[in-house]
């Protein structure tokens, strides 16, 4: 490790916070030995549903040195997306909080490139790659190794300071940095609020999710019709789901984000149930320009809305 590694590490963490990231942790770029059998079993049990891409690049998911030549460090970062306000009409079809504003891929990638550029400018010739939920990187494993938090029973990374309403991102670089202490303590304890609250029983056991039953998967990733078995179970979720996070006691520490790009699109929070059920493709295109909701396309959102029409509106649990 270079003599200046301590200074470089602090320099990078300070800049990450200046750019608006909530937390920044460092882990040594190494093989994820503990995660290998877990990932293999999860895939073997078909818990990834129709997301066949999860089966690809198995080796790259477990070893960042295959993704980045001579990788030395994995910088894990979090970006808060918890909104100050939420949808007003309690009967309106619901969108996951992370999708209120601009697509997080665009926002975070820009910040990561700025951080990488800063590193190269201040330190010298450093090579690396930026990752935001769109490449074979096990971001939760790296966040845990970097001391960001622990993997909760709902499989999300949870921070004692801020809860879990944040995005995860990584910079994998060929620079030796001082690694943080991995997070080894599970602070969920005997709490099972997320497991109990999931209306489709998607949380099979602590940190094991069956995507085939997850409302987020069913409303976003699934391209076929939503199975009839979920009638009466999905409530009024039309894009994503926040139930397991809403009931998590640790999210009492969540604070509104300060990222201008994540502010809700105009009129989004004011739309009533009938506004959503009668949405046109033109309104969809204007409302969700540069939004993560475009992933499901207009056709997919209409499918979800049609499914909602068949279901009574269920009150979504919240944390105590």
UniProtKB/TrEMBL annotation:
The record places domain 4Fe-4S ferredoxin-type at 179-208
Q: Which InterPro entries match?
A: 4Fe4S_Fe-S-bd, 4Fe4S_Fe_S_CS, QueG, QueG_DUF1730
- Which amino acid positions bind tRNA, per UniProt? 299
Q: List the GO terms this entry assigns under cellular component, sorted alphabetically.
A: cytoplasm
Asked if the Swiss-Prot or TrEMBL record annotates the protein with the keyword Manganese, the reply is no
| Residues where cob(II)alamin binds | 61, 133, 154, 157, 168, 216, 241-242
Instruction: Quote the EC number.
Output: 1.17.99.6
Is Iron-sulfur one of the keywords UniProt gives this record?
A: yes
Biological process according to GO: tRNA queuosine(34) biosynthetic process
Please give the pathway this protein is involved in: tRNA modification; tRNA-queuosine biosynthesis
Active-site residues, as the UniProt record annotates them? 133 (proton donor)
Binding annotation for [4Fe-4S] cluster 2: 198, 214, 241, 244
Which keywords does this chain's UniProt record carry?
4Fe-4S, Cobalamin, Cobalt, Cytoplasm, Iron, Iron-sulfur, Metal-binding, Oxidoreductase, Queuosine biosynthesis, tRNA processing
Task: Identify the Gene3D superfamilies for this entry.
Answer: 3.30.70.20
Main localization category: cytoplasm
- Which reaction equation describes what this protein catalyses? epoxyqueuosine(34) in tRNA + AH2 = queuosine(34) in tRNA + A + H2O
What is a GO molecular function of this protein? metal ion binding
Binding site residues for [4Fe-4S] cluster 1 = 188, 191, 194, 248
Q: Which family does it belong to?
A: Belongs to the QueG family.
Q: What is this protein called?
A: Epoxyqueuosine reductase
């Amino acid at each position: 490790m270079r003599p200046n590694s301590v200074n470089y590490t602090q320099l990078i963490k300070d800049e990450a916070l200046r750019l608006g990231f909530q937390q920044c942790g460092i882990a040594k770029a190494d093989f994820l030995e503990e995660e290998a059998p877990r990932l293999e079993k999860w895939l073997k049990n078909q818990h990834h549903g129709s997301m066949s891409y999860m089966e690809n690049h198995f080796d790259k998911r477990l070893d960042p040195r295959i993704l980045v030549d001579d990788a030395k460090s994995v910088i894990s970062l979090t970006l808060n997306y918890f909104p100050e306000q939420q949808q007003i009409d309690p009967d309106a079809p619901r969108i996951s909080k992370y999708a209120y504003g601009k697509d997080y891929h665009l926002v975070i990638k820009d910040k990561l490139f700025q951080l990488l550029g800063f590193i190269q400018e201040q330190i010298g010739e450093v090579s690396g790659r930026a990752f935001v939920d769109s490449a074979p990187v096990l971001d939760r494993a790296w966040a845990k190794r970097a001391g960001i938090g622990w993997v909760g029973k709902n499989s999300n990374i949870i921070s004692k300071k801020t809860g879990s309403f944040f995005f995860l991102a990584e910079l994998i670089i060929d620079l030796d940095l001082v690694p943080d202490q991995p997070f080894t303590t599970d602070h969920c304890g005997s709490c099972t609020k997320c497991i109990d609250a999931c209306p489709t029983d998607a949380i099979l056991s602590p940190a094991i999710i069956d995507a085939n039953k997850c409302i987020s998967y069913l409303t976003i990733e699934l391209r076929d019709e939503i199975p009839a078995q979920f009638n009466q179970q999905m409530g009024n979720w039309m894009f994503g789901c926040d139930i397991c996070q809403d009931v998590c006691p640790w999210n009492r520490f969540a604070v509104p984000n300060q990222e201008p790009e994540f502010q809700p699109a105009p009129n989004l929070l004011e739309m009533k149930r009938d506004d959503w059920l009668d949405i046109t493709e033109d309104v969809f295109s204007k409302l969700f320009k540069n939004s993560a909701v475009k992933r499901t396309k207009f056709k997919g959102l209409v499918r979800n809305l049609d499914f909602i029409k068949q279901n009574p509106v269920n009150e979504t649990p919240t944390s105590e």
